[in-house]
Automatic annotation (TrEMBL):
<feature type="domain" description="3-hydroxyacyl-CoA dehydrogenase NAD binding">
    <location>
        <begin position="19"/>
        <end position="196"/>
    </location>
</feature>
<comment type="similarity">
    <text>In the central section; belongs to the 3-hydroxyacyl-CoA dehydrogenase family.</text>
</comment>
<feature type="domain" description="3-hydroxyacyl-CoA dehydrogenase C-terminal">
    <location>
        <begin position="198"/>
        <end position="293"/>
    </location>
</feature>
<protein>
    <recommendedName>
        <fullName>enoyl-CoA hydratase</fullName>
    </recommendedName>
</protein>
<comment type="similarity">
    <text>In the N-terminal section; belongs to the enoyl-CoA hydratase/isomerase family.</text>
</comment>
Amino acid sequence: LKKKSKQWEKEANPVNLSAVLGAGIMGGGVAFQSALKGTPILMKDINQDGIDLGLSEAKKLLTKRIDKGKMKPDQMADVLNNITPTLNYGDFGNVDIVVEAVVENPKVKDAVLRETEDHIGENAILTSNTSTISIDTLAKNLKRPENFCGMHFFNPVHMMPLVEVIRGEKTSDRAVATTVAYAKAMGKTPIVVNNCPGFLVNRILFPYFGGFLHLIRDGADFQHVDKVMEKFGWPMGPAYLQDVVGMDTSKHAGDVMAEGFPDRMSHDSKTAIDVMFEKERLGQKSGKGFYQYE
Ligand code: NAD
């Protein structure tokens, strides 16, 4: 968060073209933000439906900006022209940085990262938006692990200013510096963190969720807790936040945190998240979580 740039930050490669793998919630958001702030981006998915979804989300966000008077209608085409949708790696030879944002599955990510490495230049930087997989694990099968690091955005990408840049064991200063510079060019606030379960933000957020889950087990009303935290000044309370994140994602990340920090982050009995997950009450994505959305 320091404003003064450090010596290693000067090692950044210029970023004239970027690419994102996956046009889903996060990949679509990364493409939109990069395009909006002026770095052209290739957006790759495995099927046209994925691409169409990513593009329609970008159009929706741009329309909202125009409606709010934050952008002129004729600027919309310029932003959209900065996003090049693709189903293959054809143009990846010219990219300076890639953000991998495919499904949170280590095997899929491993295959996607290795294939990408074969199509990008030797100096290009490869990053992953993983929330829970170790950066060193993902780097293990790469030919150039020094060019690889984490670039962890938060949801929704266009609204959340922070980006965690995660340095793995073999990550070079150049990779970190380029990723930091790209995050800044996207209008974000990057922080450089070491690789560990939860990186930094989830190490803060999950103990907070843990406190909330204990409170409701002790009989507190979740709506009341949400209101209290909103009055405290947070944009939303913990129950609503869990609904936005999704019980499946939250449970998975919670399990990773408990495994990484058993003394601090494990629960001695089932939590409300576990129960809702079992009942497929996943939050906003399924229409029902703590709150009802149907
Ligand atoms: P998502 O399911 O919305 O999108 C994943 C996309 O990847 C889909 O469009 C899918 O078609 C595509 N895909 C799958 N295999 C691919 C391949 N081989 N090549 C190209 N595209 C492929 O998922 P998401 O929520 O956007 O999550 C993506 C990543 O971001 C995950 O690693 C997740 O942990 C991380 N993340 C998610 C959030 C969140 O709140 N959703 C927040 C931070 C980080």
